[in-house]
């Protein structure tokens, strides 16, 4: 019997969440859900105008992510959802009333991520907003369950492999 599981690939914008999450999902045959696709219209418009989201803006988005986790697990599917999950309260909201979730925290230095963002095309998140993401980020602490740090200061395939190993280790 398949056990439904959700893996959240998280981190600030520019860490490669979507690219890495897609590659890992394809490699393991998991469902892939881009958290950006779960943002309400108002959030997308706000970010496209270069305005960072506030906690009130994020509430309906986090509820949708929580529902996506619930759907995966209830349908006995396994999948990857990518989203920033910058604050512990956001991660807790995603966890609420769901089975245990593994968060894969893609992390790297500000300068590395800024350089990568400058090379991106066609994404509504602007490089100028990166500072607000780092300001908002609450690093997961050792007592926070289910979070694995994945260093992105490595070639793409190596980061993908690190994520795959964490997922496979969870059984």
UniProtKB/TrEMBL annotation:
Entry protein name: Gluconokinase
Record key words, sorted: ATP-binding, Gluconate utilization, Kinase, Nucleotide-binding, Transferase
NCBIfam families, per database record: therm_gnt_kin
This enzyme's EC code(s): 2.7.1.12
Gene Ontology MF annotations: ATP binding; gluconokinase activity
Organism taxonomic ancestry: Bacteria, Pseudomonadati, Pseudomonadota, Gammaproteobacteria, Pasteurellales
One Pfam family named in its UniProt record: SKI
Organism of this sequence: Muribacter muris
GO biological process assignments: D-gluconate metabolic process
GO CC annotation terms, alphabetical: cytoplasm
Protein family (similarity comment): Belongs to the gluconokinase GntK/GntV family.
